[in-house]
Amino acid sequence: MLAISLFTDLAAFSRNHCVAICATLIPLILLMTIQTLLLIYWQKTTAALFTSVMIASGLVIALFLHVSTWFIIGVIHPVTFILATLGSVCLVVNWVAVAWRQWRSPQNLLNT
Question: By CB count within 10 A, which of 40, 60, 64, 68 is most buried?
Fold first, then answer.
């Protein structure tokens, strides 16, 4: 019973503070994705790349959870789909960057 109440309260908090959550998460997700691409370009260590990707992935998961609270109550607007697409694209870009790094130089796994 407590878990259902907690979930309901968190979902209500998410919907009540939608503008603040989106205004925080969207720039952070975009900045972390850009940082991932810059780390690839500058050929930084794999550990730095994984750290950037994991932070970006955590932020995208938070965005997905936020958008899912709107889907659960039946709010189907273009904005919810745009946010879900943005999160999906950033998630794919981050993990493709990791895969590309490993494909390009597999010895980095041993030298992190």
Answer: 60
